[in-house]
What does this fold into?
Amino acid sequence: MHSVSGFEQAVVRYVQQRFEPLVDEVETDSYGNVTAVKRGRKAAPLLMLSAHIDEIGFIIKGIEPNGFLRFERLGGVSDALLGCRRVNVNGHFGLIGSLSERSRVAAGLKQIIPIAELYIDVGASSAHEVAELGVNVGDPVSFISEFEEFTGGHRVCAKGMDDRAGLAIMIQALAELKGETPFGTVHAVATVQEQVGLRGAVMVVHRSKPDYAIAIDGSPSNDTPISA
It folds into this structure.
């Protein structure tokens, strides 16, 4: 599923369905944050678990007369990762264009091409053909990256692992709590728009006012030859 910040609807529906059989109540606010309520023997203390459901991606900001799309990032996406990447443009296959190495050398380019100079090719040769595809300015763009499992079965690779991994952990925690009655109340919250400023989480915390909170999220690897 694609869930670029601000366009999380598909994952919101998925999370609602996964939460409902596991908890006492499921609430979805106007932002799209989904809160699973597990009532305890007492109302307090209130523990909030949270994992965000949005992923980094892009938004279409312009359509050229020749059918190429200009785009802007939603979340922290490095320019160095963009060239030749496959993307989903509101349900259509696209490819982020890049100069070949030969062309870059001929043009004297050594630096990374910034996003402002890149484009997305959806196979259209005019703005009219783009419109016929149903692609418009403001449409979301997400990476295409299939789920892959490494040999051995203990490691996986996919887009959106930040923070689908955290969401999976939170759902599993609720599954293990099913049939149990905690001392206090538990709110498990799938939050939106984390990648663009923690917007969903800020709204939920202001409303719920938990006594304790645990954010389940990813972090950079520190055990590779190139580590942060």
Notes: The chain has five helices and 13 strands.
